[in-house]
Amino acid sequence: MSHWIILPVVLPAMLAPIIGFVMRYDxxxxxxxxxxxxxxxxxISLGLVMMAADGTTHIYRLGDWPAPFGIVLVLDRLSALMVxxxxxxALMVxxxxxASGWDNRGRHFHALFQFQLMGICGAFLTGxxxxxxxxxxxxxxxxxxxxxHSGGRDRxxxxxxxVVMNLxxxxxxxxxxxxxxxxxxxxxxxxxxxxxxxxxxxxxxxxRVAAMLLMIVFAVKAALFPVQFWLxxxxxxxxxxxxxxFAIMTxxxxxxxxxxxxxxxxxxxxxxxxxxxAWLFPAAIVTIALGAFGVLGAKRLMPLISFSVVGxxxxxxxxxxxxxxxxxxxxxxxxxxxTFAAACLFxxxxxxVSRRDxxxxxxxxxxxxxxxxxxxxxxxxxxxxxxxxxxxxLGKLLVLDALREPGLMGWAWTAILAGxxxxxxxxxxxxxxxxxxxxxxxxxxxxxxxxDADGSDDTPPPNRxxxxxxxxxxxxxxxxxxxxxxAGPVASYLEQTSTQLFDRxxxxxxxxxxxxxx
Amino acid sequence: xxxxxxxxxxxxxxGGVYLLLRLRTFPVILGLxxxxxxxxxFLFSSxxxxxxxxxxxxxxxEASYTDPLPQALVLTAIVISFGMxxxxxxxxxxxxxxxxxxxxxxxxxxxxxxxxx
Lengths: 518, 117
Description:
- The complex is a heterodimer of chains A (518) and B (117).
- With 518 residues, chain A is mostly helical.
- Chain A has one domain (3-442, 465-512).
- Helix content of chain A is 72%, strand content 2%.
- A two-stranded antiparallel sheet of chain A has the order 1-2.
- Chain A is globular and about 75 Å long.
- The N and C termini of chain A lie close together (4 Å).
- The relative contact order of chain B is 0.13.
- Chain B has helices spanning 2-20, 25-45, 69-99, 108-116.
- Chain B is built from four helices and no strands.
- Chain B starts with a helix and ends with a helix.
- In chain B, 68% of the residues lie in helices and 0% in strands.
- The radius of gyration of chain B is 21 Å and the shape is elongated.
- Chain A binds chain B through residues 130, 134, 137, 141, 144, 148, 151-154, 156-161, 163-164, 167-168, 170-171, 174-175, 177-179, 181-182, 187, 233, 299-300, 357-358, 360, and chain B through 16, 20, 25, 28, 32, 35-36, 38-39, 42-43, 46-48, 69-70, 73, 76-77, 80-81, 83-85, 87-88, 91-92, 94-95, 98-99, 104-106, 110, 114-115, 117.
């Protein structure tokens, strides 16, 4: 039993209160501590990926209680991958938040940030559904604070909606857990996976209700139609680095669907067979369409990016809904890609919007580094829409390739391809308005030109992006390029991941077999 | 007994959902509180209803006991929902003070003004 497994939860949990209480008035100290903590988290999660790469399912029993009675943390390839994704994204977002000064526009950014990381890592690692609920609450309560960070009228109102939506979701989660416990007598994922297949189909009514309720709860997190409506308002009003961090939060929902509905209510379980995919698949198709039309119709930059996130969640969940190892491999690849793509878009949008008057998609004075911003936005938009050079293309290709079954192919291919086209059009329109048409407007006001004629133009423009501000965006882009260049090794790791995910017997025996792994 | 608990859960849930769909902040908060009461009672009864039984095994003979796990779950749920309600009250107060309105939905006209700006 390796203690490394619990460190991604314990480390931020220890740092957050220290930052919150001791360093609340010292932003430099808080920044240093938070960065060091996130770098350590990245190192730990790299170690965990190495540890999980041999294919065994590692167990951490809290308090050393055996599995169905105590809470367990489970580290397999999937959870290690998700923790690594979280910490890599967190480091980029944190660097951006510090360079752009977002973290200093309100109190307790770093403490909330660490609590958020604790919740997300915990949700990925836990092997118990009630514990999953608790970690969901931790990541949500931290996200409420981050969402309304630095205040403002629209942000507070959007934050209120976000909180109400998620509190209602939490209540549903508890109803689902109560139903599940009443019908099986356990909440351990492995134990549930062992017990639910034994329930005959005609007696599984309550289990079916619980499975559906859980799916609705996770769908709220994953922004799946018909419960996606909170996402555009939330993401477009959140501070941009927070919105970039939230790119992983929708993935928590997708991960939970993958984990719970594969391992517990997986394919071949008599009580729930065919029920989940029958609902998930059409909902995901509609989500793609909604995202695409939203991108096309958005009048402002932040909602445009938010809708593209909705569309990418649809694409991801279409692949998840098939519940086969091949499709899951594609879904995982697309999940990693879309996390970085969304983060990249939000970060570059922040650089642009903070140098313009609002984020409306209208031509205005071009920013000082119009060319640089346009190039980054172009690359990020290519990635999000799924055009060739970057990993979005490979991701969508894998998803399309996995969805070749006759009943699915027509719907899925039409939705994904048409959705991509609309997304491209939407992004092209936004990019050309923001960066291209703006160049037609003269850069300098007349009196400044007069000053320039005097030759006294040495003072640099005040709002030039420093290298430190551009670097995190470049890092997310580099992640996308890396994902495309090393697509082969990554895909083979993900293939093993999904094989392990669908090996339900292996998961059950690893968690429930008493004490052979020490 | 079962009927009483079930109808209480049902009534509270129905009331909670109705209040949750209201337009103003205060009824929505009350609705969420009602929903969390409903879910607490529901969780409590998910380990079967039992009267006069302790959730502890007795060393002395055959004393029957009730399932302790739902009680632990409901305790966690109460703590979380109480804390969340407090957070919600504070955020809605903040939103009310910022916007001078306790409507829960974001006005379309507001959004359009922003675009025009």
